[in-house]
Amino acid sequence: MANPTVSASVLITGMLVFSGLGSLASGRYLDRCRVIMPRIFLAIAAILIVYSFILGPVLDVIGLWPYVLRIVACLALLLPPAFLMGFPFPTGMGMLSRLGKEHFFLWAWGINGLFSVIGSVAVPLIAVLFGLKAVIWVAAIAYLVALPAFFALLLPAAAGSQTGLARG
Q1: Distance (Å, rounded) from C-alpha 108 to C-alpha 35?
Q2: Looking at per-residue confidence, does 2 or 160 come out higher?
């Protein structure tokens, strides 16, 4: 897509819609999250790493197609990673609730907001300085780092934090 505004609109819309659908679907897997989530994190990282190598040539070919087909093809490329990216946050929040760790909700939302702001500044900088491949690799690494963090979330709550002693 030659128009940067249209490209950004398709990217943002696709990411929001497909990750939203992933968030919606994630509730079905909450009981099996200890098995499913490692696969989700690894799949996201794998898709991103593959995309880092093939996206340039694929987009060059798609750029020659008619306008509507370009939009559909770009949305199709966004679907797999964006859908899977919709799983981690709602699954983590659901597990916090199930484990009686609701007092971490504010932290979870705060960390999510923090990294949203950092990402909105870091992505264009990394892209300009090091290229799109570097942005995609940083994202893949972030999902791999999130894997052990997710398992830390699943640890039982400390006795003091459940009774309110740790907060007061």
Answers
A1: 22
A2: 2
